[in-house]
Write a structure and sequence with these properties.
Length: 132
Amino acid sequence: MAQELLLEQLKIMGFEPVRIDDGRYLFEYKEMKYLLRTDDDNEKFLSISIPVFDEITENNKMTVYETVNIINSLVRYVKMIIKEENVSVVYEHRLADNDDLEELLENIIQALSTALSLYIKKMRGDKIPYLD
């Protein structure tokens, strides 16, 4: 039920979610792919991520770890994750009966976009307000 409501709301907002397998859908925002994941065993679980947007190399390893740590402490509700030498960012949420899905999805997408933007700026060596 929650999955159908989320997909309907994304469509209303102008996104075109594409099913990739059970409980997982891709959609695009600002030329980035977002992954919506739900759980049939827990209808209240919602996860949206920007999967694998950077790769860790020997040359950038320490900078990536430092940047991920900074973003995780700076941007609320999102988690940057390092897995198998790749960096992703995820927002997990427990749906409540009174959630305004449009507002919730807008906030999630904005938080993920902000975290990614800050990551890119920090990796380029740009100054980040309130941090540098």
